[in-house]
């Protein structure tokens, strides 16, 4: 087993690459690090998005329709930030773009937990979370007392 194993980047399929690049850029502050050459066939277009020069997300224009929650595959993608204020900034940017939220406001991961965030979907229905590990206590009530909030959206 590799001792240094960690998550590198995540790749997801989207229906409209330009729309998704704008979403991840405007809402999460990711920058385009690379992508398809001009003239690439529409079904082979790709963009690599990152932060501070490091690759975070690769998006592929390969989906024929929205993400299906009831099929095997990615449950959700969570982005960690340092403070609850940054979670609120993401929430504001999402509201400005008319994003679909699962819960109202910043919510804890579980009753009595200090970690939590906002839970929403990207333009193709992929479930996303922006969270922080502390500072959420007192922000709101956890939607589920007996299970992690992020597991049931």
UniProtKB/TrEMBL annotation:
UniProt keyword terms in alphabetical order: Metal-binding
Signal sequence, start to end: none
Boundaries of every VOC domain copy: 6-133
Pfam families: Glyoxalase (PF00903)
Cited SUPFAM superfamilies: Glyoxalase/Bleomycin resistance protein/Dihydroxybiphenyl dioxygenase
Gene3D superfamilies tied to this protein: 2,3-Dihydroxybiphenyl 1,2-Dioxygenase, domain 1 (3.10.180.10)
Segments forming a coiled coil: none
Protein name in the entry: VOC family protein
Organism per entry: Streptacidiphilus cavernicola
């Amino acid at each position: 087993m590799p001792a240094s194993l960690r998550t590198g980047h995540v790749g997801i399929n989207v229906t409209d690459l330009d729309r998704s690049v704008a979403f991840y850029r405007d809402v999460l502050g990711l920058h385009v690090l690379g992508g398809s050459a001009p003239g690439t066939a529409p079904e082979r277009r790709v963009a690599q998005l990152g932060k501070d020069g490091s690759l975070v997300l690769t998006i592929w224009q390969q989906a024929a329709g929205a993400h299906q929650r009831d099929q095997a595959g990615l449950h959700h993608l969570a982005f960690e930030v340092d403070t609850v204020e940054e979670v609120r900034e993401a929430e504001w940017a999402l509201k400005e773009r008319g994003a679909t939220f699962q819960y109202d406001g910043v919510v804890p991961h579980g009753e009595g937990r200090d970690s939590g965030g906002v839970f929403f979907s990207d333009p193709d229905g992929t479930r996303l979370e922006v969270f922080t590990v502390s500072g959420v206590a007192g922000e709101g009530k956890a939607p589920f007392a007996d299970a992690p909030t992020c597991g049931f959206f």
